[in-house]
């Protein structure tokens, strides 16, 4: 198997080293693992691409490259240039330092990399490690992902839904819970949730020169969410697996609103 890995924490991130081990296990002795990752941290860039300026790509060693762009840029660089002779069989993005459950998924560069791979027609999975009090004292906070990652991905590869309709291909978002590897209770396939009573915001800051800046800040990561969603099962010690695709349409509303403009006569706008 030929596997491409990327992330949003940067080429030197410990989570990427964990993903390299997972990918090597999956690829097997005759397989290949290619790394194309951002030169610097790109957390929170979502599915951003460097559309208005060029992106430098540097070869660090065999099958290992760094770009000045986002995770989506990395996938584009791999598919369109670095691995153009033969596309990867699988794209893995992560392992992110911190969860991408709930509303975090909308901001995640880790998920953005997997989404771009899916848009390129490739099987793709995003992986993130939830952190918390029970992982803070571990020698390896990524041990849950290291120990369970390959088995979960194998199950998805063998039995998951990899169908691709006329528009958008499925990809998967995996979050490992904030507990030691031995305390993981299992795996659940669940929808994306949202933490209640918390949201992203800003922390304003005035520099010594008087100029105004801000830091973006997330809300409490242990805030409750609807039962049976990714956030809820992660907090209960389960690995979450969420099928996703790059389609933001609310299909339920489409059905409800289908007749809303049936009698629209396109009258001239009121001056």
From TrEMBL:
It comes from the Bacteria. It catalyses: a ribonucleoside 5'-phosphate + H2O = a ribonucleoside + phosphate. It is found in: Cytoplasm. Binds 1 divalent metal cation per subunit. Keywords: Cytoplasm, Hydrolase, Metal-binding, Nucleotide-binding. A divalent metal cation binds at residues 8-9, 43, 96. InterPro entries: SurE, SurE-like_Pase/nucleotidase, SurE-like_sf. Signal peptide: none annotated. GO terms for cellular component: cytoplasm. Its EC number is 3.1.3.5. It holds the Pfam family SurE. Residues 3-196 form the Survival protein SurE-like phosphatase/nucleotidase domain. Its main location: cytoplasm. GO terms for molecular function: 3'-nucleotidase activity; 5'-nucleotidase activity; exopolyphosphatase activity; metal ion binding; nucleotide binding. Transmembrane segments: none annotated. Its cofactor is a divalent metal cation. Belongs to the SurE nucleotidase family. NCBIfam families: PRK00346.1-4, PRK13931.1, surE. Nucleotidase that shows phosphatase activity on nucleoside 5'-monophosphates. PANTHER family: 5'-NUCLEOTIDASE SURE (PTHR30457), 5'_3'-NUCLEOTIDASE SURE (PTHR30457:SF12). HAMAP family: SurE (MF_00060). This is 5'-nucleotidase SurE. It comes from Paracoccus lichenicola.
């Amino acid at each position: 198997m030929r596997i491409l890995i990327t992330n949003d924490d940067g080429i030197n991130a410990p989570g990427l080293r964990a993903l390299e081990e997972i990918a090597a296990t999956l690829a097997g002795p005759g397989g290949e693992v290619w790394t194309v990752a951002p030169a610097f941290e790109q957390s929170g860039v979502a599915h951003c691409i460097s559309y208005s300026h060029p992106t430098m790509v540097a070869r660090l060693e065999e099958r290992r490259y760094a770009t000045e762009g986002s995770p989506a840029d990395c996938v584009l660089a791999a598919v369109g240039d670095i691995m153009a002779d033969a596309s990867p069989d699988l794209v893995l993005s992560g392992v992110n330092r911190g969860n991408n459950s709930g509303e975090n998924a909308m901001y995640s560069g880790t998920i953005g990399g997997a989404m771009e791979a899916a848009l390129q027609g490739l099987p793709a999975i995003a992986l993130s490690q939830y952190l918390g009090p029970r992982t803070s004292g571990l020698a390896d906070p990524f041990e849950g992902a290291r120990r369970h990652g390959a088995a979960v991905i194998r199950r998805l590869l063998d039995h998951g839904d990899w169908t691709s309709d006329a528009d958008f291909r499925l990809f998967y978002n995996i979050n490992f819970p904030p507990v030691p590897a031995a305390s993981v209770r299992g795996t659940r396939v669940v929808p994306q949730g949202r933490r209640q009573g918390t949201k992203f915001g800003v922390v304003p800051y005035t520099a010594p020169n008087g100029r105004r800046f801000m830091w973006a800040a997330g809300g409490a990561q242990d805030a409750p969410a609807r039962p049976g969603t990714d956030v809820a099962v992660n907090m209960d010690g389960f690995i979450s697996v969420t099928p996703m695709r790059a389609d933001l349409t609310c299909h339920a509303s489409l059905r409800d609103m289908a007749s809303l403009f049936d009698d629209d006569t396109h009258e001239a706008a009121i001056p």
